[in-house]
Structure formats: structure tokens, C-alpha cells
Design goal:
single chain; about 150 residues; Immunoglobulin-like; four-stranded mixed beta sheet; 2 helices; HSP20-like_chaperone; A-crystallin/Hsp20_dom; Small_HSP; Hsp20 family protein
Length: about 150
């Protein structure tokens, strides 16, 4: 058998082109969130519960670690939009060790509300990481039934 004395690139083309290194870098960046100094922003997916009572629609959003100043609530054209940004910074200092971690995330969720809702009386409160939005229903209009006289022609 004739063995080559000089090493030759007998690997397929993608391995020669540096694709392997780029793939590994992409994999590590996805797994560890990047190697740069700047923190990576991510999408937070808070849990939303929507329920209906006889008088209102109630929306509860679980937003642990957030304050009311981190959340924005808007209502336009029967669309309620809840958006916010979660920021967490943690520093640990021990004898010969200093660790600083930061994480950021944002979310936005829009919900279509019915036209029978009283948009002027929406109420929102924030307590212990739970945002509660109460959207009252409009009073149903009473039908104005009347008798119409029929005239002979």
C-alpha cells in the first residue's frame, strides 16, 4: 500500500473552508449566549391568563422579578398591548473571585378585546409580580321597542 508521506487535505470541501469552525462558534454562541461583553437580549415569555366574568374581562400576567415601571400597557382600536423589559444584574464577590452576571429580556403581547368593552374604565394593578388588568363590559343597550301605527292606503 502506498501511504502519502506528506499530509494532504482529503476531507470534504466544507471542512476545508472553515465551515466547521464557524459552525462550532455558532453552536457555542447559541448555547452560551455569546462570548462578547455586551449582554444578549432575549425574549421573555410570561404566562397570561384571560378570564371573563359577568361584568368584565380579567387578564393576569405573571411577571416575576419585574416592577410596574418595567411594564407598559396601551389600548388602541380594541387591541390591548402589554409590553415590558426584564433586567437582572447580579454581582458576587468572594475571596479571589468576582462574578458579574446580567440578563435582559423583553416581551410584547397584544390581545383583541371585544367592542362591547368600556375602554375608558380599564383598571390595572401590579402586586407581587402579577399584573392584573380589568376591562369592564359596557351596559347592554336596552332595545327601544315601540308600536308603529299602520295606516290604511
Amino acid at each position: 500500500m502506498n501511504w502519502p508521506t506528506k499530509r494532504t487535505n482529503s476531507y470534504p470541501a466544507p471542512w476545508n473552508s472553515g465551515l466547521l469552525h464557524r459552525s462550532i462558534d455558532d453552536l457555542l454562541e447559541d448555547f452560551f449566549g455569546g462570548f462578547g461583553i455586551e449582554p444578549q437580549a432575549s425574549v421573555v415569555s410570561p404566562r397570561f391568563d384571560v378570564s371573563e366574568t359577568e361584568d368584565a374581562i380579567v387578564i393576569e400576567a405573571e411577571l416575576p422579578g419585574m416592577d410596574e415601571k418595567d411594564v407598559e400597557l396601551t389600548l388602541q382600536d380594541n387591541i390591548l398591548t402589554i409590553k415590558g423589559e426584564k433586567k437582572r444584574e447580579e454581582e458576587t464577590q468572594k475571596k479571589n473571585c468576582y462574578i458579574s452576571e446580567r440578563s435582559y429580556g423583553h416581551f410584547q403581547r397584544s390581545l383583541q378585546i371585544g367592542s362591547n368593552m368600556d375602554a375608558d374604565k380599564v383598571d390595572a394593578s401590579f402586586k407581587k409580580g402579577i399584573l392584573t388588568v380589568l376591562i369592564p363590559k359596557l351596559e347592554p343597550e336596552r332595545s327601544k321597542a315601540r308600536t308603529i301605527d299602520i295606516k290604511a292606503a
